[in-house]
Design goal:
By secondary structure, the chain is an alpha/beta fold. The chain folds into 2 domains: about 1-120 and about 290-320, Quinone Oxidoreductase, Chain A, domain 1 (Alpha-Beta Complex); about 125-260, NAD(P)-binding Rossmann-like Domain (Rossmann fold, 3-Layer(aba) Sandwich). Helix content is about 30%, strand content about 25%. The protein contains 10 helices and 16 strands. The protein has helices spanning about 40-45, 115, 120-135, 150-160, 175-180, 195-200, 215-225, 245-250, 270-285, 300-310, and strands spanning about 1-5, 15-20, 30-40, 60, 65-70, 85, 95-100, 105, 140-145, 165-170, 185-190, 205-210, 225-235, 255-260, 290-295, 315-320. Helix 7 links the parallel strand 12 (about 205-210) and strand 13 (about 225-235). It is globular and about 55 Å long.
Length: about 325
C-alpha cells in the first residue's frame, strides 16, 4: 500500500512516500481503508520527535482519518463496509490503517468522509476545552485566538452552538471574515496594537474563557481580559513559545489555567462521548467543518508546509481514497 513513512526524526524531508505491506490488525484491532486523513500542526512536532506521545521511527505519519472497515478481525461491533472515523497515534497517511476498535466511531450515511475526517482531533480538542475543562454555559463570553485555524474554528462553532458570545482573533481580514461567518460576533486583529482594548469594547463585562492555541505574549495579555474566576484554556503554542504565566495575577483574580491535552487511553469515556456527539452535530448540519483544501496523496509535504506557515484556514485534508 502507499504510505508516508517518517524514516527518522528531523524535517519533512525525512518523510518518504513509499509502498509498504498492509498492516495486519492485532487482537482488538480492525483494518480501515482510509478515504480522507486530516493534517495537523502536531504532525510537524511529531516529525521533529518533540510531540508529547512519541512513536519511534520509522512509522506512518498522521493521526485522524475517516474511511471504511476493510477487515473487522473478529470484532463484533463492526463489520466490513462500516463507515467510521478514528484518531490513532499514527498511521493515517496511508491506504490502510490498523486501529484499536475502541477508537472507531460509526458515521451516518448523511455525513461525508471529508467532514468526518476533520472531527477526531481539532473538534475533540475544542469540545474538551470548552465543555469538559471550561464548563462553558450559555450566555458566557469566550475569546478564541487563531480563530480561523482548525482548532479555532471548531471552538468558535461549538461555543456558538452552546449559546456563548464569541469574540475571535485572527491575523488577516479573510480569516476574520471566516470566523464571523462561523459564529463569532466580533473578530479582531491580534497582530495590531490596541487589540486588548478592542476586546474590552466588544465585551465590556469581561471574558469568561480564553481558548489559546498560540502561547507567548498572547497568553500573557489574554489573562488581563479574564473575569474574576475566568479560565485560560492552554491548547498549544503555535507562536513557538510557552508563556511564563504570573502567578500573582492568577491568585488575585481567582483565575484557573487548564492544560488541554487529551489522551485516549486515559480519557476513553470522555473522548468517545465527545466524538459521538460531534458526529451527531455534524450529521445534522449544526457543525460544518471548513475544509480549506484536499491534497492529493503525493502532495502531503506541500500541505504540511502551507498549514504550518499559516496559509490555510480550517482543515487541510489528504485525499487518500481519491
Amino acid at each position: 500500500m502507499r504510505s508516508w513513512v517518517l524514516e527518522r526524526w528531523g524535517t519533512i524531508d525525512d518523510l518518504v512516500l513509499k509502498q509498504i505491506d498492509e498492516p495486519k490488525p492485532e487482537a482488538g484491532e480492525v483494518l480501515v481503508k482510509i478515504s480522507h486523513a486530516a493534517l495537523n500542526f502536531a504532525d510537524m512536532i511529531a516529525v521533529r520527535g518533540r510531540y508529547q506521545v512519541k512513536v519511534e521511527p520509522p512509522f506512518v505519519l498522521g493521526s485522524e482519518f475517516a474511511g471504511v472497515v476493510a477487515d473487522a478481525n473478529g470484532c463484533t461491533e463492526f463489520e466490513p463496509g462500516d463507515r467510521i472515523l478514528a484518531q490513532a497515534p499514527s498511521g493515517a497517511y496511508a491506504d490502510y490503517c490498523a486501529v484499536d476498535s475502541a477508537r472507531l466511531v460509526k458515521l451516518p450515511d448523511r455525513l461525508g468522509f471529508a467532514s468526518a475526517a476533520a472531527l477526531p482531533v481539532s473538534y475533540t480538542t475544542a469540545y474538551i476545552a470548552l465543555f469538559a475543562k471550561g464548563g462553558l454555559q450559555s450566555g458566557q463570553t469566550v475569546l478564541v485566538h487563531a480563530a480561523a485555524g482548525g482548532l479555532g474554528l471548531a471552538a468558535v462553532q461549538l461555543a456558538k452552538w452552546r449559546g456563548a458570545y464569541v469574540i475571535a482573533t485572527a491575523g488577516t481580514p479573510e480569516k476574520r471574515a471566516l470566523a464571523l461567518a462561523n459564529g463569532a460576533t466580533a473578530a479582531i486583529d491580534y497582530r495590531q496594537d490596541g487589540w486588548l482594548e478592542e476586546v474590552r469594547n466588544a465585551a465590556p463585562a469581561g471574558v469568561d474563557l480564553v481558548v489559546d492555541p498560540v502561547g507567548g505574549d498572547i497568553t500573557l495579555k489574554s489573562i488581563r481580559l479574564l473575569n474574576w474566576g475566568g479560565r485560560l484554556l492552554v491548547c498549544g503554542f503555535a507562536s513557538g513559545a510557552p508563556a511564563a504565566i504570573p502567578a500573582n495575577h492568577i491568585l488575585v483574580n481567582a483565575i484557573s489555567v487548564d492544560g488541554v491535552f487529551w489522551d485516549f487511553l486515559r480519557d476513553k469515556e470522555t473522548v468517545v462521548s465527545a466524538q459521538r456527539e460531534l458526529v451527531e452535530l455534524a450529521a445534522k448540519d449544526r457543525l460544518r467543518p471548513h475544509i480549506d483544501r484536499v491534497m492529493p496523496m503525493a502532495e502531503l509535504k506541500s500541505g504540511l508546509e502551507a498549514l504550518t506557515s499559516a496559509q490555510t484556514s480550517g482543515k487541510v485534508l489528504l485525499g487518500v481514497g481519491l
